């Protein structure tokens, strides 16, 4: 799955468009011949290397892996284990390409490659070796036609959704955000010019665990995708020959997440939608709102059960979207959404506060100061981020998604 920089496999961000060679250039490998093309070789790959390469018809394969984040790291781990398996010779050579990072630790794929003593290159450096197949997971850089031509068996893409559902840069986030009960992983062959439309080589489905976050779901799908990748590589020529087109029905898109997505819209979103939003991105970027013109972050959101809703002190409130009350028995803040209440157990307002701390330090003081005000006037308001703030937060979001 290669797409615009700014989202991770579980969400996405960190992928880029791929410009690939015309389809007619892909056929000859089936007969054991190197495809011919007039495309210029990419940096690091000489024309001599390309002409002298001999296509293998069976394992062990020489693999160049492109990836960045935790989802990609699991696929790399599986490839590395296969290379070290002396009983079943599946991988002969494994090298890694990743991208520079603002994190001092480096991205997860680079960390793993260094720890495992795998040759690792930082884009655009790709070394000068010969390979049979490329594998891509959460890479986020433009790949040229000449680079794709380097691989006689093309490039395999590990995509965390059941294509054609959730084509795009943030499939896991949108799976959680829309409350899907079933998802999965697709191993597909990359095709030129359009995203996530190539033939499906293998696809498996799994149930989405109730109330799972995007990061929790990513952990499940990354292991599934890694196992599926190894299965495809064991029968690579056959898998490519048996690839099936994606269905025309059921296509949905998973656009990248912007900074504004984290701002709760109390007048527009239901309590279920707010909870799903928290599960989808809360581990990466906490949901945000306004309290008395100050930005606060909502750290721990939960569903409000019927016993709390039946409390006379809650039922008797005159409320509007964003109204905040403290429910002492459950030690939660209750915030009214478009259709009902959502529970908040902790927030960040200058520092991390429990709901009880926030009540004692801010809500109680507000009620004392505004003793004649209606409870509906004590409220969170929708935060509208300025453009510059959105851009800055987007950079932080990209970094968090791949760290």
From TrEMBL:
EC class, as a word, reads transferase
> Could you tell me what this protein is called?
Methionyl-tRNA formyltransferase, mitochondrial
Q: Which GO terms describe its cellular component?
A: mitochondrion
This chain's function reads:
Methionyl-tRNA formyltransferase that formylates methionyl-tRNA in mitochondria and is crucial for translation initiation.
InterPro entries reported for this sequence: Fmt (IPR005794), Formyl_trans_C (IPR005793), Formyl_transf_N (IPR002376), Formyl_transf_N_sf (IPR036477), Met-tRNA-FMT_N (IPR041711)
Enzyme Commission no: 2.1.2.9
- Superkingdom is Eukaryota
Reaction(s) catalyzed by this protein?
A: L-methionyl-tRNA(fMet) + (6R)-10-formyltetrahydrofolate = N-formyl-L-methionyl-tRNA(fMet) + (6S)-5,6,7,8-tetrahydrofolate + H(+)
Gene encoding the protein: Mtfmt
Q: Which CDD domains match?
A: FMT_core_Met-tRNA-FMT_N
Belongs to which family? Answer: Belongs to the Fmt family.
Molecular function (GO) terms for this protein are: methionyl-tRNA formyltransferase activity
Residues of the Formyl transferase N-terminal domain:
131-233
Subcellular location field: Mitochondrion
Q: Which Pfam families does this entry report, sorted A to Z?
A: Formyl_trans_C, Formyl_trans_N
Question: Origin organism of this chain?
Answer: Rattus norvegicus
Keywords of the record, alphabetical order, are: Mitochondrion, Protein biosynthesis, Transferase, Transit peptide
> What positions does the domain Formyl transferase C-terminal occupy?
257-362
């Amino acid at each position: 799955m290669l797409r615009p920089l700014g989202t991770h496999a579980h969400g996405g961000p960190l992928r880029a468009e791929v410009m690939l060679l015309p389809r007619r250039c892909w056929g000859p490998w089936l007969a054991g011949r190197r495809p011919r093309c007039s495309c210029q070789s990419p940096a690091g790959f000489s024309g001599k290397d390309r002409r002298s390469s001999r296509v293998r018809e069976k394992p062990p394969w020489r693999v160049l892996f492109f990836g960045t984040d935790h989802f990609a790291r699991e696929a790399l781990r599986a490839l590395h284990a296969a290379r070290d398996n002396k009983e079943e010779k599946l991988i002969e050579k494994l090298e890694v390409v990743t991208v520079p990072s603002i994190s001092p630790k480096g991205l997860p794929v680079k960390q793993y490659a260094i720890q495992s003593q795998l040759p690792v290159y930082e884009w655009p450096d790709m070394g000068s070796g010969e390979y049979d197949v490329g594998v891509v997971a959460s890479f986020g850089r433009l790949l040229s036609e000449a680079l794709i031509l380097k691989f006689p068996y093309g490039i395999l893409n590990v995509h965390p959704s059941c294509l054609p559902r959730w084509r795009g840069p943030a499939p896991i986030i949108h799976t959680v955000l829309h409350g899907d009960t079933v998802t999965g992983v697709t191993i597909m062959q990359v095709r030129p010019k359009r995203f996530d439309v190539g033939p499906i080589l293998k696809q498996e489905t799994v149930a989405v665990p109730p109330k799972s976050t995007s990061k929790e779901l990513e952990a499940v799908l990354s292991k599934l995708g890694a196992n599926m990748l190894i299965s495809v590589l064991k029968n690579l020529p056959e898998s490519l020959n048996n690839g099936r087109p994606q269905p025309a029905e059921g296509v949905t898109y998973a656009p990248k997440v912007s900074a504004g997505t984290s701002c709760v819209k109390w007048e527009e979103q239901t309590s279920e939608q707010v909870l799903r939003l928290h599960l989808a991105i809360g581990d990466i970027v906490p949901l945000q709102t306004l309290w008395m013109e100050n930005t606060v972050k909502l750290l721990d959101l939960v569903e409000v059960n019927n016993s709390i809703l039946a409390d006379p002190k809650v039922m008797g409130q005159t409320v509007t979207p964003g109204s905040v009350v403290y429910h002492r028995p459950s030690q939660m803040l209750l915030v009214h959404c478009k259709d009902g209440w959502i529970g908040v157990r902790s927030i960040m307002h200058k520092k991390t506060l429990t709901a009880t701390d926030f009540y004692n330090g801010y809500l109680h003081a507000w009620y004392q100061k505004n003793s004649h005000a209606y409870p509906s006037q004590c409220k969170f308001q929708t935060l509208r981020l300025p453009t510059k703030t959105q851009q800055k937060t987007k950079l932080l979001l990209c970094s968090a998604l791949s760290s």
